[in-house]
Amino acid sequence: MLRIEYAYWLIAAFLFYTSWRKAGERQFYCAAFWGLLGLLFAGGDAVLAAQKAGNALPAQLAGCVVIALALIAPRMRRKAHPETASASARLASALRLGHKLFVPALLIPLVTLVVALVGEHLSIGGHALLAKPQMTLTGLMLACVIALLAAARVAQAPVLQGVSEGRRLLDAIGWAALLPLLLAALGEVFTQSGVGAAIAALAQMILPEGNAFLCLLVFALGMVLFTVIMGNAFAAFPVMMAGIGLPLLVHRYGAHPAILGSMGMLCGYCGTLLTPMAADYNLVPAALLELRNPYGVIRAQAWSAAGIFAATFLAMWALVFR
Amino acid sequence: MNYWPLLGVAVIVIGFALRFNPVPVVVGAALVSGLLAGLHVPDLLALLGKSFVSSRMLLMFVLTLPAIGLLEHAGLREHAQQWMGRLRGMTLARLLIGYLLVREALAMFGLTGVAGAAQTVRPLLAPMGEAAAEKIHPELDAADRDEVRAVAAATDNIGRFFGEDVFIALGAVLLIQGFYAQHGIDLTPLSIALWALPTAIAAFVIQSVRIWLFQRRLQRRASARNAQEG
Predict the structure, then answer these.
(1) Same domain, yes or no, for A194 and A145?
(2) Considering the domain boundaries, does residue A167 fall inside one?
(3) Of B23, B67, B73, the CB nearest to A148
(4) Do A136 and B113 touch (CB under 8 A)?
(5) A299-313 pLDDT, tens digit each
(6) Which positions in chain A touch B198 (Cβ < 8 Å)?
(7) What CA–CA distances, in Å, run from B209 to A298, A308, B100, B148, B217?
(8) Could you tell me the CA-to-CA distances from B123 to A34, A79, A101, B72, B143 in Å, in that order?
């Protein structure tokens, strides 16, 4: 059965390859960085299994590796790396291959889509072919492998050259690739340290008595602010709901729970558009698109976020106290 | 109430404001918050390691890089640009608004993973957008080019975020339902998802208007440059 773990092993292999090539180029900090990250990916399941069985040592070692990665990251030079084909060679190849070039690129979303839709019904002799949890991600893994094979065929190049080109792109992203995982871990640590509870307590302290509108405004802005800090509306939601939403808005002022929950969450999503803490949506794309300003994507969406927040808040105010 | 762990938030804010490398800033903030909350060092290390490896799925996008890299080597971006140049009537605004519509509609059906910065924006949408912008002004400068790419990435994010909340079986709706269920209020997922519709529509309208304004800004810049040259 195809499980999501295989994707992690593939990623680990790719990271080890990148590390090996970096060592060959005598960039040892980069080699160490990708190698250590590869270790975390290859050993991740063993860490989680040991943790479940009550042995915390592998997880502690993983924590040490994370700290080592943080110490190495500032020493990595992200330099613009030369393209492997000249502009004229790429243009000639583009003219020769034409629309065929789109096929492997479109296979990535298409195969992911098909697997996400029908994946759980695929079986051979009664055995499910794909594990049900995270079907879309399994689909993405399959899609990437199929697209790589198709791309190698279209470009008439060996598959290994694809891996080597991929390494070039990964190099361009550099340490930014690590941020989404680190921020997820930070969110977990914040939750365990009671950061959320402290913020909710502060918000309740500044709250004026007996004004439903101001209370709703503090709730909505709190969702935005807390999402900006945590990088994730899902982390902000339970905190703001337990602190303000449920005790004050729902129980005291009679707010409609479904509207409050849904639109409150969407206020948080506006915060996601504004924060470097949501690295996978804001900083990684900037690195991937090789923008010179790492905050370029945030700048491009800031006014949209403000507009969507205003619209959502007004709708919530008009509807929630019906 | 122990307010000291909030200093971890301060570490983040100061670190990002001073533009330090974010990686050590984030790890430092985690250590500060954890230690001030009274966690023991071994427990804190284990927590950090465990939560890091539990979110490995966030690096799935690197699997797209080999295929994308090989196609780019073979001229994918050049072809996307050439093709856009030939499509008459396809403006920058039409391209981006059309993408926004498709992306948001797919997300409404829970299909958020099918597109994204690595899967669709870098190989397809950004080069097509640049080609469409070149129709407005043939000699885009580097700043314009960066802005076109950034707006493409922003459009992808906005379509995804405000579509996905309408889907009943996705994280957000289930999280809301679960929270209320824990506190004795029973809601159906549909009744929650329905209230995400007004924002989904507002997000589409607002982002479309902003795309159109961006196109007009590019047109103004182009005519200003032409006037200077002429």
Answers:
(1) no
(2) no
(3) B67
(4) yes
(5) 999 999 999 999 999
(6) 263, 311-312, 315
(7) 18, 12, 12, 15, 12
(8) 24, 21, 11, 7, 20
* A288 in a structural domain: yes
Residues of B whose CB is below 8 A from A300: 147, 150-151, 153-154
Residue A222 shares a structural domain with residue A152: no
CB contact under 8 A, B60 and A11: yes
Rounded to 5 degrees, what are φ and ψ at B2?
-95, 110
User: Is residue B151 classed as helix, strand or coil in its secondary structure?
Assistant: helix
Task: Answer yes or no: is pLDDT of B218 > 70.
Answer: yes
Of B146 and B193, the one with more pLDDT: B146
Interface A-B, measured as beta-carbon pairs within 8 A, has a size of 443
Residue A241 and residue A312 share a domain = yes
Give pTM, 2 decimals.
0.85
Domain assignment present for A303: yes
Whether B62 sits inside 8 A of A14 (CB atoms) is yes
CB distance A311–B150 less than 8 Å?
no
Q: Which chain A residues are closer than 8 Å to B59 by Cβ?
A: 11, 41, 177, 180-181
For residue A57, what pLDDT is reported? 93
Q: Do A48 and B54 touch (CB under 8 A)?
A: yes
* Nearest chain B CA: its distance from A208 CA (Å): 21
A48/A63 Cα distance (integer angstroms):
12
How many Cα atoms sit within 13 Å of A167 on the Cβ side?
Answer: 23
Residue B170 pLDDT > 70 = no
Question: B182, B65, B163, B78: which is closest to A145 by C-alpha?
Answer: B65
Mean pLDDT (whole number) for A203-214: 81
Give residue-wise pLDDT tens across range B44-59: 999 999 999 988 888 8
- ipTM of predicted assembly, 2 dp: 0.88
DSSP annotation of A130 reads B
pLDDT digits (tens, 9 = 90+) for A98-145: 889 889 988 888 888 888 778 777 777 777 777 766 777 788 899 999
Q: Are A211 and A304 members of one domain?
A: yes
CA-based nearest distance A221→chain B, Å? 16
User: What domain range includes position A100?
Assistant: 87-157
- For chain B, the domains span 4-54, 58-229
Into how many domains does chain A fold? 3
- Is residue A47 in some structural domain? yes
Give how far B187 is from chain A: nearest CA, Å: 7
Average pLDDT, chain A: 88
Q: Which residues contact A197 (CB under 8 A, 6 or more apart)?
A: A239, A243, B1
Same domain, A68 and A105: no
Q: Which of A26, A48, A77 is the last residue of a domain?
A: A77
pLDDT in tens, A240-256: 888 889 888 999 899 99
Residues A11 and A129 in one domain: no
- Chain B CB contacts of A311 under 8 Å are 198-199, 202, 206
